[in-house]
Sequence to fold (357 residues):
Amino acid sequence: MLDTYELGSLTLPNRIVMAPMTRARATEDGLPVASMATYYAQRATAGLIVSEGMYPSAASQSNPNAPGIHSDAQVAAWRPVTAAVHANGGRIFAQIMHGGRVVHPETAGHHPVGPSAIALDAEVFTPQGLKPAVVPRALTTEEVRGEVAVFADAARRAVDAGFDGVELHGANGYLIQQFLSSTANQRTDAYGGSIAGRIRFAVEVAEACAAAIGADLVGIRLSPGGPTWGMAEDDVPDLYGALIAALAPLGLGYVHVMETAEEDVLLAMRKMWPGAFMVNPGGQMLAAKQAEQTGREAGDYWLWQGADLISYGRAYLANPDLVERFRLGLPLRPAPDRETWYAGGDADFVTYPTHQH
Fold:
């Protein structure tokens, strides 16, 4: 885990990745704030940082106080963050996250869109608290192609903002996974129906971003069979096998897989994928594991199973020096209470010190 790793043109000093985590500290108009530069710089010893999800268009914002990457002002506000990470010796990818049907009009100021006009059966975040999701407007075929272009434009802006690359959020029930879903996607055109149709949007987004900034600067995060935000996927092994097969020729920087499916599904994906394979062993598959803070043992296990990189989420919340704690066998500080994850302000954000010997 502490070995170096060559990821495209980047030399990672270790195989430990800070996973993307929503922290809801940006301004109302999606601008990163100064403490976000501190937060990421504190964790720059990670082999790679993947930022919190940032919305690629005004209509795609799913969380209040999430940062964006679609305006000149947002690009300018991200530059001090990426500069702080680089000044501390780190590397950082921007996660591009389109909310799709998880968007609420009170958050984004726009009506949500999705593969089909099928509402999420849950409450979603708004500035006034949780509210029932609304029925999204189904994208026309031409509009789907327009959303592909939205991702590519965001990728270009991210590189302009100083990021070393981008990660496409194809997991956790957001727009890319909505197209993969057999329930959220009831389309009858080329972007729905068969497995080939359901993977088409994900593949076209990856192709467009690779053409925009270079394939080795593009990763994609997947949660095979993951149920977050009402997702359901038929034929998970076949679906993700077809997706991996379609993505493999593109030469992407990495595939980032969450442990949301049975191990044999993930191992089959590992065997099919020719490039860097990142696993997040945080345990969203079983509800009992969702409260756990994953440690080094789980990461070592997946390295033995053939993963190249291991991403950690909650372990990085209260342990900015996670790499050194692993290196020296030091105990991990427990993750903070969930109420502080999105509470705003600097408390339980940039207030965690490194281990004191």
